[in-house]
TrEMBL record:
Pfam families: Steroid_dh. This is Polyprenal reductase. Plays a key role in early steps of protein N-linked glycosylation by being involved in the conversion of polyprenol into dolichol. Acts as a polyprenal reductase that mediates the reduction of polyprenal into dolichal in a NADP-dependent mechanism. Dolichols are required for the synthesis of dolichol-linked monosaccharides and the oligosaccharide precursor used for N-glycosylation. Also able to convert testosterone (T) into 5-alpha-dihydrotestosterone (DHT). Belongs to the steroid 5-alpha reductase family. Polyprenal reductase subfamily. Its EC number is 1.3.1.22, 1.3.1.94. Keywords: Endoplasmic reticulum, Lipid metabolism, Membrane, NADP, Oxidoreductase, Transmembrane, Transmembrane helix. Its main location: endoplasmic reticulum. It is found in: Endoplasmic reticulum membrane.
Length: 247
């Protein structure tokens, strides 16, 4: 349940960055000086105006997707999930808070910000590329499945009227649970891949973020999968831990 704190931080911080980038893109505003200093520390310089326009719009879309993802996960933590008495290590807690601050800043640092556009919305929407559409569709698809899987997990601890009756673990069935033990972790990976696609495939920095999410979620999935196998003798043997049919 302390993951709720991560999403609160993400909604506030990445919402702030989203507003700042929106004002830079459409209102001709400039970023606060302290953000500009942080941005310049990464050596991001303007190379081409057309490239800058395209990258600005892609980054704006990804920040919006990241904010929506954090907002949905916050709502699920508060209104859907039923948490047990498990605890989180203080190091993991501090790292998690820093991660959700860093991930939005990473998106912002992928675009040149020493130009003030002040474009109209219609002109920006004309910059929509095929990879934007692919990334957004994949994002929606993965988000819907992640939500369904979290609802399935929550319902294992509720009766038909929605009242929590147990905090024990049970075997989940339905949706992607038929193929893997932790489909919500797999969906998380797909969500970050969809953002990489939205940035245009070529953004190496964001693919490093995707790799981190891959290894982080894979480790958590393996531990969860082993717990299921040790706890339930009747656990479905065909299920993989993380990626359907593969792993």
């Amino acid at each position: 349940r302390w993951f709720t704190h991560f999403y609160v931080v993400s909604v506030l911080w990445n919402g702030f960055l989203l507003i700042e980038l929106f004002q830079l893109e459409f209102l001709g505003a400039s970023l606060p000086p302290w953000i500009q200093r942080l941005h310049s520390a990464f050596g991001r310089d303007l190379q081409n105006q057309n490239t800058a326009d395209s990258e600005h719009f892609s980054a704006l879309l990804v920040l919006l997707l990241l904010w929506l993802h954090s907002f949905r996960r916050l709502a699920e933590c508060l209104c859907t999930s039923v948490f047990s008495s498990g605890v989180i290590h203080i190091v993991q807690y501090c790292f998690g808070l820093g991660y959700y601050v860093a991930v939005g800043s990473t998106v912002l640092c992928q675009v040149p910000t020493n130009v003030r556009n002040g474009k109209c919305l219609l002109k920006s929407f004309m910059q929509i590329c095929w990879y934007h559409a692919v990334g957004i569709v994949m994002y929606i698809w993965a988000s819907l499945h992640q939500h369904r899987c979290l609802v399935i997990l929550a319902n294992l601890r509720k009766n038909k009227s929605g009242t929590v009756i147990s905090l024990s673990h049970s075997i989940p069935f339905g949706d992607w649970f038929e193929r893997v033990s932790c489909p919500h972790y797999f969906a998380e990976l797909l969500i970050y891949v969809s953002m990489a696609i939205t940035l245009g495939f070529h953004n190496v920095t964001w693919w490093f973020v995707v790799m981190y999410v891959l290894f982080n979620q894979a480790l958590a999935a393996v531990l969860c999968h082993e717990f299921y196998q040790k706890t339930f003798t009747s656990y479905p043997k065909h299920r993989k831990a993380f990626i359907p049919f593969l792993f």
